[in-house]
Each structure stands twice: as structure tokens, then as C-alpha cells.
Amino acid sequence: MTERYPFTPPDVSRRGTLRAAGAGALLLGLGLTGCRSAVSDANSSAKEASSKPRRGGTLTVAINSDFTPSLLFAQSSQSYQHRLLYNTLTRYDDDLKPQPELATSWDYAADGRSITLKLRDDVTYHDGRKFTADDVVFAVKNLQNPVRAAQLRATALAVSAFEKRGDHEVVLKLAHPVANLFDLFEFMIITDRHSVEDAVKGKKLNGTGPFRLKKWSPGSGLALVRHDAYWQPGRPYLDGVELRVAAQADTLVSSLRSGQSQLSYQVPGKSLAAVKGNPDLTITNYDTGDGATYVGVNTTVAPLDDKTVRQAVAWAVDRERIVEQALGGYGLASAAPWPKSSPAYTEAGRTHYTHNPAKARELLRSAGLKKLRLPLLHLSLPGETAIAESVQYDLKQVGIEVELQPTDPATAQKKLISQDMPALWTMSHGFAQVQPSTLAVSAYPFNEAKNTSKYRSAAYTKVVREAWTTRDTSGAAANARYRKISRTLLDEAFIIDLAIRGRVQVASRKLHGVTLNKFSYLNLDDAYLV
What we know:
Blueprint: H1 10-13, H2 24-30, E1 34-36, E2 58-63, H3 82-85, E3 90-92, E4 98-100, E5 103-108, E6 114-119, H4 133-144, H5 153-157, E7 159-164, E8 169-174, H6 181-187, H7 196-199, E9 211-217, E10 221-226, E11 240-245, H8 249-258, E12 263-264, H9 273-276, E13 281-286, E14 292-297, H10 307-316, H11 319-326, E15 332-333, H12 347-350, H13 357-366, E16 372-379, H14 382-396, E17 400-407, H15 409-417, E18 424-429, H16 436-442, H17 458-468, H18 476-492, E19 495-500, E20 503-508, E21 511-512, E22 515-516, E23 522-523, E24 528-529
Parallel strand pairs: 1-13, 2-11, 16-17, 16-18
Antiparallel strand pairs: 3-4, 5-6, 6-8, 7-8, 9-10, 10-11, 12-20, 13-20, 14-18, 14-19, 15-19, 21-24, 22-23
Helix pairs in contact: 10-13, 11-14, 16-17, 17-18
């Protein structure tokens, strides 16, 4: 394919190369075989392989929770299949520079009020229907629908009108400039407009991606087969992919060690030691920073409506111990949400809160509190339980008794979206790995207009909107806007970040050519087994 770039936003092209989210010592402590960014080849042995790509075979991916159709348009830990079934308009490279996918080229107006997309004319859906500009229009309008619970809905809503110029060119007109338009294009899967209601019920997943749905077995996983009419010539190499649920850590690890599965991103940190010595497996770090661990706070629950109490929680937690013990040494202890690759990252923000139980007790006393009992929801998965237990231990040392509430991932995600969380919860968030404004206008925990913590502030809205409604995303002025967002997050402490982590890939040495996009959609276009 000939790639054309008639216009590349200068603010995107100047972004720095992604750096490792954690220090080298952490990687050595894990025995990691390599460190890759989210869009580079994640298998460090692939370049060393003397064999050429081979066609055939079925890849089995071990996952810890099943696909939830109703959350198809919301990014979560269950989004690995998105880029297998569907495509996106563009994809980022290592420098956050957008590259063509279903959009071959674009012309972004200097005033940031419109973008003209030229589209591929050789793409068909799994059912044989041709992809056209109507599908792009539908994809944007679909995310504008609040029922879809899409994190980038605010950015989709900024598209106020459409102008089709034939079947393969479309103009998106914007109500105002946005800093994260290409985040939307990488996030937004292009679904079939004629069967979308069947898609959100798991009945029909009709996309343009390299694989088509063979069967979904609720509770067991997805079976996919090659889409023979895929628009990339000769791709995919694999005959099929199975995403197989292994909810228990021991079962998941056993499937990798025995060769029953060849790939997973959901081995708990404490279990990595069980696989790192296996000569048939590799462990590779994805430094995306798209899975930061945090404590969420419901600011409508007394006494957590007092930021002094929230700050006490932030000082009480031992982030370094969580990284070393609960995450198995993988990650970067951080009080702020930003990975090192983000222009919003500062060392001062990362270390704003450190482990200081005395400071925590002092703040609680100043709020008139000595003892406190609170519920804490967490995912009922081994790795997430370990994090919750660490938080529980630390808070007990300062006089806060915590009752753990294990919850299955699908239910927890729905509670997150519907703002139905208890006083405290621990989960992971993404959206700090792309344009910084995306975190504060898109991620459920941080959304300035409607967040899970039910935190509202005109000042917070103002600084977020200043960063979002502009195309200027680099330089001194942009960095100043990012610092304002960070200061608000750290001072108000309605989300208390603990550690920045991306994805740890455990893979068979027989597997090559695997990548993830910035939102951890699994890309197997070039993957093959030897």
C-alpha cells in the first residue's frame, strides 16, 4: 500500500519517543526479555528468528475474564479482541504520529474546525459488504450515543456535522478544536451499522478486521477464524485465534507453561516468577502506561467529602511495596497518573505523595478523626486482590479499617460507568498514555463533567477544557496547562494513583509479530507461529 501524508499535525509529530515506564532495575528484577512500546514488535525474539513468517495454525490467548458485549464500545481489560474483529481509522506509531489504517490520508484544517479523511476503497466487511464513508459517519454517531458508554464520547460529540464526498471521502466538521482527535480515531472501532444492536448482544460481530467470529461461548471465550477477504494482502498468517478464559491465576499460568495457550497479558505480578524461568516462554514489557493502578474515592461519602481525609489516604499507602510485592516488581510507583512518555509527566508529580503514615494520622486528627471504617471494592482477580489487600493493610496502620468487597470485572466496570461505587475502590485506568487531555475528558474516574467519584469543580473543568479545546499540544503553554490538571488531581485526591504499569506479555517463543495499539487492542495482522 502507498501511504500518503498530505498533512500531519505538527503537535503530534514532535512528540518524544516512548520510554520505559519503569526503571531498568525493575525490569532486571523481573528477568524481562525486552521492553517495547505499544506499537512496536512486542516479541523480542522475532527479529532473531531465521525463519520467514508461516501461514497456518491457531493462536490461543489466555484471558482472565470473558468478553462483555454490552461494553463493546468502552475500552477495558476485555478489549483485546477489538482489533482482531475490527479496524480503526488511524494508528499511532512510537512517536504518537498517526499512521493510515482505514483512512489513507487526511487534511486537518489549520483552525482545527474540520478534517477531511480519504478512505480505503478495497475494504469489505466479513459479510461481504463494502466499507464506505457512511460507516465512518455511523461510527462517530454511535459513540455519541450515551448508551454506548464510550470513554471518548466527548470527543465524538465535538463532531457537529459531516460532508460526504463520494463513497471514500468524508469531512468531519468540529464545533471547536480538540487536542485528541487522533486518539478518537485509534480508539473508535469501525463496526457494521446494520448489525450494531446484534453486536452489543454478542450475536453478530461483523467488522473489517483480519478475523471473523466463529463462536462466542459465554464464560469460556471467543473463537475467531481468518477473514479471507481481508484488505491487507496475504494477511493474516494465522488460521484462527481463540481467546480462552482462565479466571484462576494457577490455571492461566499452567496453560502457558504446558503450551495450551501461547499468549497472555494477564499473568498476575506475583505469578511472573513461575514463568520467567521457562525456556519456552518470553516475558516482554509494554511500556504504554495504560493500566495505572489507583484508589478511587466517592467524594459524596462522609468524611471523604473532605479532601484532607482523601489526602490522608494518599499519604498512607506504600506505593513502592505495592509495586514490589503485588505487581511482582513491575511498574513505577507514582502519585500522578502519567507515564514517563507523557508530556504531562513530572518527577515532582510522581513523588507528590510518598509513604508517610505519620502525615496521614496528622491529617486525620486535623479532620477530627481517629478511627474510620470504610468499604473497598476490588476486582475478584488474584492480582487485583493482592493490590486491595496491600491498601487494606496500609490504611489499617493509620486507623482506617477497610472491608474488602471482591467483585467480578464486568459488574465492577458497570458500577464504574454508572457512578455506583462504594466509599473506596481499587482498579486500573488507562487514557494517560495518549494526549493528556483525553484522561480528563474521557476516563470514567477522571472525567471533568461526570466522574465516578462524583467530584465536581468549576476550576477543574476550566483547566481541563483549556487543555482539550486546542490543537496546541506541545511547548511551554501546553505543558503549563498539563501542570494545572496535575495540581488539581493531586490536591483534590479524588483519584489516588498508586503505580504506573502497562502490559506484561508472556508468550511462547514460537509466536512472533504480535503488537498492541495504544488502547491495548491486540493486533495479529503479522503474527505467526513456528
